[in-house]
């Protein structure tokens, strides 16, 4: 689309909407044009729409619908898959101004929020009344609840508490043509009609714009007990993870870091983890049985061949014990540019995946650090490359493809919590069978017949 | 449709399908023509299809699709909303022959089953490997997992563990035209594509025929501790329920029975509960903190004015303490014909609902027993009437309408776990807004363009 046409779109949108909702300042547009993904493309959107109310979102969508302009809904832009990247000719619809916590009810155990609320703000507001909102993506201090809903974000809590979808019980949604729809309800149970709530969660802005979110809360858990075990052999760490699951333990956190990641952490923070450590396992329990759980996990790790095991019930010590996990990504980012993968496999195959990544790393001569959620099989193999070197970029992409294919071969999925976006749109057709792909296309057409909602991402191509 | 046309449909289906899959024996057809609902209508289906494999289900749907014959998928027929009632001219597709448990994996904590597996059989198979499949609808010993998926069935476990949807992670589905689609996956997490799994769960056979179900399992909990408290005033029981939620307790069961139900139970089983008892509250805890939870609940009930509190950690005593709940429906059924409602309100409004039911009962001169899931606000006001007396039927329906409307007025839903079916199809339009109704119709058309899957139930009329 020519620059003049873009300007025309922006001008026509401006004529249909309140003046302060439509922003066309090029510097602002540049900031809103993309998310934090690598290896994705973006263009130059005609405008950024910044509505403050559901009614304004509805007017934005009516206007875009009339003009046939593609709309890219956006939370905080912390996504890693290009799900919020905007093409030239589209407009970005940012929900950041809709950032009110409307209600927190500790008896009905729900919260009602606008989509632009920062996830940590909801977490803190729940904690203030003795409740907990568990979803904790890595970007929890920056990302928004609306963005979490769009991608069905996860985090370290998922092994016990589940993902964002497990907490969302109702939505207000503006449809492509501006109509406003409520889904779900405020009750714990309810089976009236199709579950449109969960059709919208994880749909990455392709089916509607979420303008209000009702989530369930759970009573705050006591401070967790922690155990950290280091292993000289990856297979031993894997055996410990399986044994912990087989024993019926339900940790509130079970994370793993591989040798490459640990080396990077050691370089960054001089933690003196030791060269012989091939894997670090971090486990927490937060229930009434936390002490028993940690004791049992300690015993299992020792029996599985851990070279060192440390545990603590002290919150400050727990923070120190988890420091290596917190530093994993920053440490890897010091080695070069990072391409994070986000595959998930059945928990029993987690170590097979990590071993396969080591083999791929050696075969392709690419450094890959692996860390992630050992308890639920969701791993983040992180490929280190040099963005300025085309050969390095090519090798990184080859490694990314090999890892993603391996996850599928192990009975897993191409994305555990980051989303499909632009980055994995081609992969979606390998995970979904032809009938499922056709149903995706049919549902998209049913809800967005013009195809204006985030058209270049997320769902299989027609 | 004339009888001859029906026979012609049956004959043509028979010509397209294996002989033993198509049953046209009138006695068999009569058995399969309806579920256990009241105040619903049914006709005389042309045949009952009894496939044994996914491929046979696919052939059934291809044949029905070619002939344009409506298909009513059916589990065990224990539904209470008319969701499996068949119209004249349709065929019933019974999944009862697909009853194999294909896999139980205690490390990945999943089970894979065919839809005709009895829910109790799955529960027992999970228990045999130290795991638990919590969903426990009242009909658990008769109903099927496929039926539970179709209606998103609940039970007494839901207050802690959630409903069927919270355990389903993947499906194999035969679409209206016979195509086979897989949804979801075997991994704990996964966000590739739309959540078609949960679109199908609770869709009451209107979007596809489920032929395989992957559910997650949880480690078996220790034997529960139990406390039962009787109250002379309903409001006191309500205050106890709210205080238990406010205190952050998470019981594994929290049930309530009202005065009418208790009177019926006393008549049936001479439990000598006493005339002064207006409500009975039954509470269990099953975690590591079960003893603490029961002690805290005991203390709260006493402080809230309970006239009698009994507790036990003994499983046999627990069975005795819960006997009144188990007998609630059989006892009410001895008073006359029963029309069960299934409304749910936010937990904080449970006692308001029960009080409103007492008022409706008095105003309309209809006996209504109330029992249900106090912990999650899902109540079963049970209207007693004489099916042979038109005036009694009319009064029962008026009471049913008044109770259902009251639930909506309290911010609740028309159905917590039984489903919409035929019984509440008219009500669905009161719960859903116009945009949500239109989206239901559009999704139905996208997946079943001919409208042959269970066309007379469940979703809003066009």
From TrEMBL, chains A, B:
Keyword Oxidoreductase on entry: yes
The keyword Signal belongs to this UniProt entry's keyword annotation: no
As cofactor, the record names: FAD
Q: Which UniProt keywords apply?
A: FAD, Flavoprotein, Oxidoreductase
The transmembrane segments are none
Domain FAD-binding PCMH-type, which positions?
41-220
Which domain of life does the protein's organism represent? Bacteria
Q: Which Gene3D superfamilies does UniProt cross-reference here?
A: 3.30.465.10, 3.30.70.2740, Vanillyl-alcohol Oxidase, Chain A, domain 4
Q: Which InterPro entries would you find in this protein's record? A: FAD-bd_oxidored_4_C, FAD-bd_PCMH, FAD-bd_PCMH-like_sf, FAD-bd_PCMH_sub2, FAD-linked_Oxase-like_C, FAD-linked_OxidoTrans_Type4, Oxid_FAD_bind_N, Vanillyl_alc_oxidase_C-sub2
Classification via PANTHER family: GLYCOLATE OXIDASE SUBUNIT GLCD
- What is the protein name for this chain? FAD-binding oxidoreductase
